[in-house]
Amino acid sequence: MARVSNHLVIMAGGVGSRFWPMSTADRPKQFIDILGVGRSLLQLTYDRFKGICPPENVWIVTNKKYADVVREQLPEVKAENILLEPCRRNTAPCIAYVSWRIKSQDPRANVVITPSDHIVTDTEEFRRIIRQCMNFTSETDAIVTLGMTPTRPETGYGYIQADLSTASPRNKEIYRIDSFREKPDYETAKEYISHKNYFWNAGIFVWSVSTIVNAFRVYSPTISKVFEGMLDIYGTPEEQPTIDSRYPECDNISVDYAIMEKAEEIFVCPANFGWSDLGTWTSLMEQTHKDLYGNALIGENIHMVDSHNCIVHTTEEKKVVVQGLDGYIVAEKDNQLIVCKLSEEQRIRLFAEE
Question: Has this prediction a pTM greater than 0.85?
Fold first, then answer.
């Protein structure tokens, strides 16, 4: 029997508008060294999957305008494995495209799908969990998603309600999902985390390529028709022009709505490996070392005077002095500066648009 091969798909098409001015539409946050460690979030994502699958089985799905920066940051990934979306259409069309593309050359592929802009602090535990899930999906028709053990009543994440009464006979760490829950308000989030069977939905999925393609055929036939109809041209010079013309026909819909909430054989693997989706300045601050006064400083030669609980991200400045601020974001990039209360950070998207 042919051996199952593991593939990694990194979705890297987002715009990250909540991180302006550091993240812009021309160079979104996944391509930036947000943590000040010398690697962008995309590169860190690639790094933490080392040993899970070989470099030739790594796929990046991104927007056409980011093709060059992806090639520059991940020269290890084959050029033909960088798939280019002509327009933004959310995660369902993105995942459908890459799934049929992989299936056309490796029908027995086992696939893990991840966003490009998350961080993980315990990479050893992360790899262990991913391997467990991939072993499970290589032997079953299951769809597995990772559920993060919540540490606070977070309103910015969707939640997964798991049935913890019985684990899967094949793997004691994997459980059936009862339901997916939308991003809650604060009171609902508090209620969720008072139960032990609610987890943050990390948007990391594991399945065999045949399982996900069949799920699209059943639950999202209009999307599946687009990509099924292109089987003869994947990997040929016709692929990009055809994608350019057909991709905009796809519904703008997430894979959660299109597949997850309808599928039957769907499981969660609860996990705890120091995960954050780095969606906001607050989430970055939580992941960054702080001084005695609660300030998170990213950049050289930053001096805080009578200031507390601030995040300062000024990696391009020779010297920065911040005096008398409490609970502020100070960030500078490409001659654009923001000074904004942390409590008002949801307005940053609007500032970016102005």
Answer: yes
